[in-house]
Design goal:
It comes from Dendrosporobacter quercicolus. Keywords: Cell membrane, Membrane, Transmembrane, Transmembrane helix, Transport. InterPro entries: MetI-like, MetI-like_sf. The longest helix is centred in the first third of the chain and has 53 residues. The C terminus is likely disordered. The two termini are 39 Å apart. With 283 residues, this protein is mainly alpha-helical. It has a single domain, classed as Orthogonal Bundle (MetI-like fold). It is built from eleven helices and no strands.
């Protein structure tokens, strides 16, 4: 009996050792991956810095990162960059909020719980969502002019469809067993929709909001290149026309950083508000 106990104990020790070795191996792999990524970025920036200064590529078209950083600092210290960022963000926010206010209720109606409305509106909305938004620039400018309204309308248009489509998908993909269980417990009518169906569709809805947010910001940059006198898109367009290449790269870097920041902010918000999704997934 004692021999069996010793054998079992040695087996457990062996298993623990193997698990520790695997865990250590995973940590080393993760650290190696992080180091490799950092080194690759450093080598890329070093080559980028060297190529224009050594004359391998003309500085007329490619500015070294040090000069771009210097230009970016100048734009920040002068306050010019923040003025254009504020203008672009306000336009994006207004268009995004309008799209959310209309897109979520519309997606809820199209989710299959109102068959007549879905049957009438679905073909029309599919046709409209298939239209390339860039081809609608002249139409929006013709209808709303070249002022702020046309830019907000463009943002609203491109944000509307991710919100509508993902909301509809979320409603339609609610587990039928969940609905049956709620009904068996006496949850019916509007309570069923509010307490069960809508919360269950929130992950899809948030995915639509996250996509719409990214699309809104980058679409605005294109909109500001047409008939605008402020905003990050106008700043890029103006720098291009005046051959201010460092300013062009600095603004482009700012646009990319803001886009990634907005995407990360929505991801953080989704994890905070929908932490129950991860908990239920463990079961």
């Amino acid at each position: 009996m004692e021999a069996l106990f010793k054998k079992a104990s040695s087996g457990n020790v062996g298993e623990n050792t193997v698990r520790q070795q695997r865990a250590a191996g995973n940590v080393i792999k993760q650290l190696a991956g992080i180091v490799f990524d950092r080194v690759a970025i450093i080598i890329f920036l070093a080559l980028w810095e060297l190529a224009p200064r050594a004359g391998w590529v003309p500085q007329t078209f490619i500015s070294p990162p040090s000069l771009i950083l210097e230009t970016l600092v100048d734009l920040i210290l002068s306050g010019v960059l923040f003025v254009h960022i504020k203008t672009s963000l306000l336009r994006s926010v207004f268009g995004f909020i309008l799209a959310v206010m209309i897109g979520i209720p519309l997606g809820l109606f199209l989710g299959g719980w109102f068959p007549l409305f879905e049957r009438v509106m679905n073909p029309v909305l599919r046709l409209l969502s298939a239209i390339n938004p860039f081809s609608l620039f002249p139409v929006f400018i013709l209808i709303f002019g070249i002022g702020e309204v046309s830019k907000v309308a463009m943002i609203f248009w491109v944000c509307l469809w991710p919100v509508v489509i993902n909301t509809t998908t979320g409603i339609q993909s609610v587990d039928g067993l969940l609905i049956k269980s709620a009904r068996s417990m006496g949850v019916v009518g509007s309570n069923l929709f509010i307490k069960v169906i809508f919360p269950a569709s929130l992950p899809n809805i948030f995915h639509g909001l996250r996509t719409a947010c990214s699309v809104a910001f980058f679409m605005l940059i294109a909109a500001e290149m047409v008939g605008a006198s402020s905003g990050l898109g106008w700043l890029v367009f103006n720098a291009q026309n005046n051959y201010q290449i460092p300013k062009l790269f600095a603004t482009t870097f700012t646009i990319a950083a803001l886009g990634l920041s907005l995407n990360g902010l929505f991801g953080l918000l989704e994890r905070r508000l929908l932490n129950w999704k991860e908990t239920t997934a463990d079961y």
